[in-house]
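Chapter review: from sequence to fold.
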Amino acid sequence: ADDSGALGFTDAIVLLSYIFGRGSAPPAPFPDCGDDPTADALGCEAAEGCRFSFQIYGKELIADGVFFVVDTSGSMLDSGELQIAKREMIRVITEFNPETQFGVVFFNNSVRKFPASGQAAEANDAMKTSAASYIESVSGGSGSCTQAGLSAAVNFAYSSSARRAAITYIGDGGGTCSGQDESTYLAQTLAAITQANAGRARIHTIGVLQIPLLNEKFLKDLAELNGGTYTSVVR
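The token string follows.
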């Protein structure tokens, strides 16, 4: 952080001073992501993350295995949010580093996924083009089997060889699949997915539409228990 070529307490001082004390900014390449332009003995393994950074809904994430889960229930369709989510995913996938692995899950009362095999895809040009076409073809439906959708994404993560896997959920946090009341269903989903994931992937949740407190709590808890972040998108 202080560009001395060594790790020490001054690195922490420089960072804390910049963040909290209006001190000088760290040297280049800050604020961008990239390699240290100054030659020294320190390696830069963390710069690997620069190749795998992406933005979705304005949130910057780093992962070399990215698995989307999108609610396609009626609320997403009626509001136009499904089309927005589809555009966001296509843009992100198109920009993926070729070494990135990815998968896409859509759910309402059933689950659809790309690739259909459930095996993570490599982000080569042909696969990215196929994914974009598939995403464009998806329409909405009724029901919201959140647990089944998230479970498919967890399986994608386990099928990949990614070092940093991330699941990105986009929806309103609702769940009405099994005939149970929503509170019970979401509590069971939270427990089941957290257990199944077991730390394999960070789960980031993006809440769209007008989200009831129960659903927002589910999205926040799901992210927190699985090392991810929660983002609320207000239009």
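Two observations follow directly from the output. The helical segments are 9-20, 48-51, 74-79, 81-94, 125-137, 146-159, 182-197, 213-225. The CA atoms of residues 19 and 143 lie 45 Å apart.
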